[in-house]
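Hi V.,

You were right to ask for the full record rather than a summary. Here it is.
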Amino acid sequence: MIKDEIIKKVAVILSGVLFSLITMNCAFAQKHLKNDESIAIPVLDTKNHPYSSLRIPALVVTQKGTLLAFAAGRIDSGSDWADMDLVMRRSTDGGDTWQPLQVIAQRENKTPVDNPTPIVGRDGTIHLVYQRDYARAFYTSSTDDGKTWSVAKDITAAFDDFKDEYDWKVLAPGPGHSIQLANGRLIVPVWLADSDVEEPHRSHRPSRIATIYSDDNGSTWKRGELIPDVPGFKNPSETMAVELSDGRVMLNIRNESTERRRGVSYSEDGISGWTAPKYVEELFEPICMASIIRVDDPGASPYQLFVNPDSKEIPKHPRKNLTVKLSADDGKTWSVTQVLNEGISGYSDLAIDDSGIVYCLYETRMENDKGVSLYLKKFDVKRLIDAL
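Predicted structure:
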């Protein structure tokens, strides 16, 4: 009996040592590339546009290779409740130059119009979901590469269908790009808040997340299931979706939990059966919107790229140190990292073209900017893949 107990204790100790060695090896295996020193390109900046702040980036590359950059052009302040326009610019030369600003959705009664969530359809259609006053949701689309847009359609009914289960006071899609699944389904992550404060504005907390979807190329939209409410997983909100190599959908979730790590949840179809959110140790959460995209590699499994302000090692964890990370195993581990911008870096969105050039549109505040502006960095994804 004593001998058996000793053997068991030794086995437990050895298991712990082995786990520690594996963890250490994983940490040592992560490669940190030299910081990106390329010049950031101004896209939607306060020096050249009539707004006090340009925030909430969304970025896509169309089937024709055109870059579409969306933002909230905030009029009198950078507040989420400022008077604003939903705006966009196009680039047909890889982001080097940009066509004049377009207003996609005009200001209305001094209320916000925000949370641009574009999807590039395989048929070339650009789908766009956004919100007004955090109370109504709208859908519009473009079939000419973003030059013109259809009359916006109110799709708030898809959100109203949540109310029996979660009596929200605030709704918002995205923000940032979303996706069309391999089966043609359009999905948009959304967050809802049952505001604990309603004056002077409805608060964004407490909150739940879900997806809405369309199986008829944007003609109609329906609600999906709410992601499970897990004790300790506090106030999930701005969320982004990616389709994994096995067809499952993974949500990467902003949250305000004490763990300060990004959350993830999985679904077989992007609308139901969501797993309870879990934390990703390698993805620090500064409490900020982040972006994730799939990078397809012919003849190999897809990669994932993730970007956010990784301020884990900075006191008080400000929105600084914008860092891109590469995963080769469907987001289980993140093997390669590179800092894109050491300075002020807020919300960001990623897109990739057919040649493997990655574009990152991000919030920052440059010298002489009146407020937050959106700038672009671009790089070849090969430099991260080659570092694996």
